[in-house]
Amino acid sequence: MTERPGGLLAKVRRGLFMTHTEILEKLGDAVKKGLGFDESVLESLEEVLLEADVGAATAGALTEGVRRRRASSSRNDLAALKSALVEEIEAVISRAPRPAPVPDVPLEVIFLVGVNGSGKTTTTAKLAAREVSAGNSVLLAAADTFRAGAIEQLEVWAGRIGVPVVRHQEGADPSAVLFDALAAAKARGVRKLFVDTAGRLHTKKNLMEELAKLRRIAAREVPGAPHQVLLVLDATTGMNGLTQARRFVEAAGATGVVLTKLDGSARGGIVLAIYRELSLPVLYVGVGEAVDDLVPFDPANYARALLEEDPEDAARRDAAL
Ligand code: GDP
Fold first, then answer.
1. Quick check: bond before 103 cis, omega within 30?
2. What is the Cα–Cα distance from 73 to 68, expressed in whole angstroms?
3. CA angle, 305 as apex, 264 and 53 as ends, to 5°?
4. Is any atom of ligand 1 closer than 6 Å to the C-beta of 117?
5. Is the CB of residue 119 below 6 angstroms from any atom belonging to ligand 1?
6. Is residue 121 within 8 Å of 232, Cβ to Cβ?
7. pLDDT band at residue 4, thresholds of 50, 70 and 90?
8. Which atom belonging to ligand 1 lies closest to the Cα atom of 232?
9. Helix crossing, 150-161 with 120-133: angle to 10°?
10. pLDDT at 28 > cutoff 80
11. Burial status of residue 109 (CB atoms within 10 A of its CB: 0-12, 13-18, 19 or more)
12. Residue 49: what pLDDT?
């Protein structure tokens, strides 16, 4: 991806790694206190991981892993600590399922699920725009019939990116919208159908039942559908968001995560909690409200970059010297 003015990649870095300079500084200070990389450093490590919002369980597990690695190593400097931590982070990431390859099917059906306000409608538009750029025909289904304004919001996006939408009236049955959208997608030979689902109905229980019903309808009409169920998670909600997200994994069968609002958030550590506690891959990160503010997530780079010094920080520091 090419860097455009405003620096999309810079925004991702800031969101994901805003904490990394701090992590390095705190660990560096702890190691420098002359004690090497000892138990007090491990305590500092757990603290900075908590501050980066990896969550208590994941912070504890990572620290324990680093402790075990230290026991079997003769080195106890900052570099050894960093490489032990990177290895532990890579292990967490490698235990989650890999993203499913794009299926070779005439029509791929992709559901977007998550609580209201997480960014489902916006992410639907962003993903649709990527597919349009890749030359694929796209249809949107406005199956969030409960949130006021959701249908119109999706229509505005669709108009901007030039894709059709199947919609009913506000309050209509989402199953009926999906049914019509599936029929339209098949009739028109569309390659990608994105389904924007509701984040809240009258009670939460009904929402999960509704999502299960939407899955059954999709599977009945298109073999293998829904091919992807993307859980849209707002990074700024931190660990609370993760607790809510669990319900979507169990009931809606989420296959991957789109982590939104990483711009203006220092909560990049949540990526690790998603891998470890939800066992789901993070596929994209959202870094703004514009249609191209969506970036594919690369977990291998993440683990290393989390503890690397940002070249921009280094340049600024050198310039100040
Ligand atoms: P929905 O209720 O899940 O459909 O959420 P929306 O798509 O309506 O998004 C809720 C708000 O979050 C809107 O104001 C969006 O513009 C905003 N939003 C969505 N994704 C991002 C993102 O990656 N960064 C920022 N800053 N805002 C976002």
1. no
2. 9
3. 50
4. yes
5. yes
6. no
7. very low
8. 3
9. 20
10. no
11. buried
12. 84
3-state secondary structure string, the chain? Answer: CCCCCCCHHHHHHHHHHCCHHHHHHHHHHHHHCCCCCCHHHHHHHHHHHHHCCCCHHHHHHHHHHHHHHHHCCCCCCHHHHHHHHHHHHHHHHHHCCCCCCCCCCCCEEEEEECCCCCCHHHHHHHHHHHHHHCCCCEEEEEECCCCCCHHHHHHHHHHHHCCCEECCCCCCCHHHHHHHHHHHHHHHCCCEEEEEECCCCCCHHHHHHHHHHHHHHHHHHCCCCCCEEEEEEEHHHHHHHHHHHHHHHHHHCCCEEEEECCCCCCCCCHHHHHHHHHCCCEEEEECCCCCCCEEECCHHHHHHHHCCCCHHHHHHHHHHC
The pTM score is 0.87
pLDDT band at 321 (very low <50, low <70, confident <90, very high): very low
**What is the 289 CA–ligand 1 centroid distance (Å)?**
6
Atom of ligand 1 nearest to the CA of 147: 2
The residue whose two tokens read 């989420």 is 254
61-116 pLDDT per residue, tens: 999 999 999 888 877 777 888 888 888 988 998 888 888 888 899 999 999 999 99
* 41 exposure class (CB count in 10 Å sphere: 0-12, 13-18, 19+): buried
